[in-house]
Amino acid sequence: MTDSADIARLIISCPDQPGIVAAVSQTIADLGGNIITLDQYSTDPEGGQFFQRTVFHLPGLAAARPQVERAIQEQLADRFRMEWSLHDTSRPKRVAIFASKTDHCLLDLLWRHRRGELPMDIAMVVSNHPDLAEDVRTFGIPFFHVPATPGTKEEAEAKHLELLEGNVDLVVLARYMQILSPRFLEKVGAPVINIHHSFLPAFIGAGPYQKAKDRGVKLIGATAHYVTEDLDEGPIIEQDVIRVSHADDVAQLTRYGADVERAVLSRAVKWHCEDRVLRHGSTTIVF
Amino acid sequence: MTDSADIARLIISCPDQPGIVAAVSQTIADLGGNIITLDQYSTDPEGGQFFQRTVFHLPGLAAARPQVERAIQEQLADRFRMEWSLHDTSRPKRVAIFASKTDHCLLDLLWRHRRGELPMDIAMVVSNHPDLAEDVRTFGIPFFHVPATPGTKEEAEAKHLELLEGNVDLVVLARYMQILSPRFLEKVGAPVINIHHSFLPAFIGAGPYQKAKDRGVKLIGATAHYVTEDLDEGPIIEQDVIRVSHADDVAQLTRYGADVERAVLSRAVKWHCEDRVLRHGSTTIVF
Amino acid sequence: MTDSADIARLIISCPDQPGIVAAVSQTIADLGGNIITLDQYSTDPEGGQFFQRTVFHLPGLAAARPQVERAIQEQLADRFRMEWSLHDTSRPKRVAIFASKTDHCLLDLLWRHRRGELPMDIAMVVSNHPDLAEDVRTFGIPFFHVPATPGTKEEAEAKHLELLEGNVDLVVLARYMQILSPRFLEKVGAPVINIHHSFLPAFIGAGPYQKAKDRGVKLIGATAHYVTEDLDEGPIIEQDVIRVSHADDVAQLTRYGADVERAVLSRAVKWHCEDRVLRHGSTTIVF
Amino acid sequence: MTDSADIARLIISCPDQPGIVAAVSQTIADLGGNIITLDQYSTDPEGGQFFQRTVFHLPGLAAARPQVERAIQEQLADRFRMEWSLHDTSRPKRVAIFASKTDHCLLDLLWRHRRGELPMDIAMVVSNHPDLAEDVRTFGIPFFHVPATPGTKEEAEAKHLELLEGNVDLVVLARYMQILSPRFLEKVGAPVINIHHSFLPAFIGAGPYQKAKDRGVKLIGATAHYVTEDLDEGPIIEQDVIRVSHADDVAQLTRYGADVERAVLSRAVKWHCEDRVLRHGSTTIVF
Asked: Distance between CA D263 and CA D269 in Å, rounded?
């Protein structure tokens, strides 16, 4: 709609108390900014935690940024004990996508990016298999093959960190079939989003479609979540389901599941790149 | 969550321009109010129309109301050429429900109201048939039977106006099978919400399920909308659909449709009573 | 559509092998019957288990029933090692509904039954609380209050068995908040359907909406299943979900959940009463 | 599941009368076939039209085909005044896809085909623009650019018929932005499936997302249908919708719509290629 130049997103979190919305909007108005959208949520108006996402237009944003940051710190953050971040929408997040052999999640991200649906730059695709190299390069994106075998995991992760360091703001696991080590997660310095092929917390771990078949569920699902050290336990960003029947075998569940997986992951990545997803303990707020 | 005492909703609409959010939140803060939620929408940041719904807590709201209204008028409305309304959530809207013979929409509203899901007072149920009298009175709600025949339509509407005048803030047509005259709509002095048994604008007019069957659609739906003089053309509040198949006959479509109708109408009434629905020409903004 | 008189449903299950469909349809044709619908499923054409539901019209069904049963046994069951049952649709299943204090599932069943949507007779409603007595009796259905305290559980179940014995073909737990003993399940002599207020197998046990809130899921669900001795592990009949957000507290999740629960339970009961649900180990086939 | 060799699909349609299912299954059993699935539908058991899809395994199908066809004609078709067709699943349908400039429907078909989800051979892609040539050829599929201008429409259609004649069993219009002439439809000799970017019959014609925005609907949809001479009036195969809000502009509706379009078209094409879609006047039966 509006050109993305001169548009900023301010994300804040602080203990709830009266006057936060007024103070934030006044600070933005004083700076010459015009609020486009504003979303807020409080876990409890009395004694809870307050979250707000404010999108505003401010002519000359890039030049004025130091002044804007100072005003936020001095007039808002200090007063309200606020954690905050400011994002210039003209600088899209730089993203690395990790994949293995299955293509549905990866292709959906590459294709949506190409048609302008995802506000991000894809810096690279990294895979432990060479199979998808040609598909990726067709989109003009660098592809790096980093083999991962049980014996070379540490070496592979060192290679990953070398590729990622300073180059990315987000890592997306698009059906990447390797578990990341706690050490990697600590060092990577960027949030990591994973797509799990079940409706978490049901069917954690491997083989969820077989488990779903055995249990006789009538819907299967997928879950996009931030990766933490606790496998399949990270904060959930988005989930969806599709109806199945007794007549669907595991192969068919897997095909249906692929449709849900790609849709859910693409939405989660889009929302993250739009700074809509705020982490709150083991959960998320999605504005 | 919070007790509804001392909570107000301010609904505003005005030409968009910078500073509205800041001015509104400052005015509320100056009055001693604390914003709980705030939603806004602009049809176009440059030259469009701006809409905002602000829910705030203000101790002693009832006593302070004249002062609050004056502040809004003087500090906001005059400056921004604003249309506005202020709602005290401790005074729920008074609602009249019109029904005929089918019970699904009516019962869903009565039952949700009884269990505390709908923030409204049901002042009365009016019907052109006596069939549902006992059902209604079981809920402790007054039931008025006003027969409507082609020859007595004018008389019936006069009776309706007599019942409604000064008593209701909203009229809900819960599958009321009579068309209201333009004269009635002009005189009733309250918005009227209708449930139409199709996914408008498909299948306007009578017999939508038969039409849906003939056309072979794979989904059927329902639409809750404000009633205007243009039949089935009023602003849409809410819609939903359900999947059907070739094997469903018209009777079965009607049964499936009933489930969608009651869900859609109940949501629309709830949202209206929470002042979430703002009219904008032939459309609505639903916060 | 067709009058339900003279319409039978034949449910069969046997090891899969060629010729079953032909044999069944020939037997029915020889008896003078006309197949209306026929559904079948094989877990594996080679060495799997075969299931079929056949609905057929046979003039004079009631009088011819012994002859029909003999033909099925001799021409089909003996040959294919078949388990089978024959249901005359003019004799609806007799159902007991167990409830506690919450009314949403119970009322939805009573409304749908009154409207003619559920092909069953409601023999009685049994509750461990007196709260819903008046609601139930308004529908002309017997209500029995059988208190259940930790010390009197055995006595209460003896009373239940006395009420149910010979009187019902199905027991429906419509948010009945007591766990049935293995002894009761063994003696009741009728299938028992329960509605669980989560998307099983997620959030088994008590308090699923609180657990869902804590885990931060983006959809909540409900599951109708047959009750077995393994709590929350019985074969699933139907499931559905509804989208929720971070802004919904546990009370709101509970309200949304109630809508899903009543819809899922009503569908499961309808399908069971239409003999559409076939048990297969820990899963179901739903035709 | 089972290898597709030796598996046939028999599609029949005839006036309903007793004994059809038995006769069909007996004929198949006599030929040595084993029924895998069987679906049937009658518009009315008394005097209606009967439809059946039977999938069966018959060892040596290819060699036995003439004998099978003779048996069907003599034992079934003549007796029941049946229209029928027999399909060998080892011979997938040959498909031509027509596209213009937008890629979402086309790519989804190509991806799913490559992944083995669609039981068809893609013979060619035809477009009135050259834009998608490279994308298509990456998949190893022939791409033909046939420009279509108002003055050369007849010439273009002649070229189309030349390309298609004898080469395809199905034509899929994957957002092909040209109207096919009645003469073309008459001569093409294969069914044509189109994806319309609205929930038909709402918003027929051009610009449906703008119309949807203007009307203020809360859901938008897409419809896959067989093409007939009556524009946007052909028998509907599949439809779906997605929820939208007042905040979505026409560009955003178009993006959401693209997701629904590609999902709906891919399902319709899959079902057609599996011989699940039977035409019945202006509607379809989808088994």
From this structure: 10
Contact of B82 with B12, CB cutoff 8 Å = yes
pLDDT-above-90 percentage for chain C: 93
Residue B225 has pLDDT above 70, yes or no: yes
**Does residue C44 carry a catalytic annotation?**
no
Nearest neighbour of B255 by CB, restricted to C1, C103, C117: C117
Prediction pTM value:
0.95
Domain residues of chain A, as ranges?
4-88, 93-286
Structure token digits, residue B230: 């243009």
Q: Distance from CA of residue B177 to its chain's centroid? A: 18
Residue C1 pLDDT = 39
CATH architecture of C93-286: 3-Layer(aba) Sandwich (3.40)
The alpha carbon of residue D8 is apart from the nearest alpha carbon of chain C, in Å, by 15
Neighbours of chain D (3+ CB pairs under 8 A): A, B, C
What pLDDT was estimated at residue D45?
81
Q: What is the 3-state secondary structure (H, E, C) of chain C?
A: CCCCCCEEEEEEEEECCCCHHHHHHHHHHHCCCEEEEEEEEECCCCCCEEEEEEEEECCCHHHHHHHHHHHHHHHHHHHHCCEEEEEECCCCEEEEEEECCCCHHHHHHHHHHHCCCCCEEEEEEEECCCCCHHHHHHCCCCEEECCCCHHHHHHHHHHHHHHHCCCCCEEEECCCCCCCCHHHHHHHCCCEEEEECCCCCCCCCCCHHHHHHHHCCCEEEEEEEECCCCCCCCCEEEEEEEECCCCCCHHHHHHHHHHHHHHHHHHHHHHHHCCCEEEECCEEEEC
Whole-angstrom distance, CA of residue A283 vs CA of residue C212: 10
Contact C216 A246 (CB under 8 A): no
Q: Quick one: tokens of D86?
A: 């027999």
Cβ-proximal residues to B214 (8 Å cutoff; 6+ apart), any chain: D282, D283
- Read off the pLDDT band of D234 (50, 70, 90): very high
The pair of three-digit structure tokens given for residue C88, joined into one six-digit string:
């005359």
Q: Do C103 and B117 touch (CB under 8 A)?
A: no
**Mean pLDDT along residues A27-43:** 94
Residue A5's pLDDT band, with cuts at 50, 70 and 90, is: confident
C-alpha distances (whole Å) from C68 to each of B164, C9, C31 are 63, 12, 7
CB contact under 8 A, D215 and B280: no
CB contact D238 to B (< 8 Å): yes
pLDDT tens digits along D81-102: 999 999 999 999 999 999 999 9
Q: In what order do the strands lie in the sheet with D34-42?
A: D34-42, D49-57, D7-15, D83-88
Q: What is the pLDDT of residues C240-268, one digit of tens each?
A: 999 999 999 999 999 999 999 999 999 99
Cβ contact D19–C34 (<8 Å): yes
Which one of C16, C211, C217 would you mutate to disrupt binding with A, by most A Cβ within 10 Å of its Cβ? C217
Active-site positions of A read 232
pLDDT at B231: 84
D202 interfaces chain B, CB cutoff of 8 Å: yes
Can you tell me the distance from the alpha carbon of B96 to that of D42, in angstroms, rounded to the nearest whole number?
45
Q: What percent of chain C has pLDDT over 70?
A: 99
Instruction: Dump pLDDT digits (tens) for A121-130.
Output: 999 999 999 9
End-to-end Cα separation, chain D, in angstroms? 19
Average pLDDT over residues C147-154: 90
pLDDT exceeds cutoff 90 at A15: yes
Q: Are D88 and D57 in contact (CB under 8 A)?
A: no
Looking at B88, B131, B232, B248, which residue is catalytic?
Answer: B232
Domains A4-88 and A93-286 alike in fold: no
For residue C174, is pLDDT > 90?
yes
User: Is D4-88 CATH 3.30.70.260?
Assistant: yes
Return the pLDDT at D231. Answer: 83
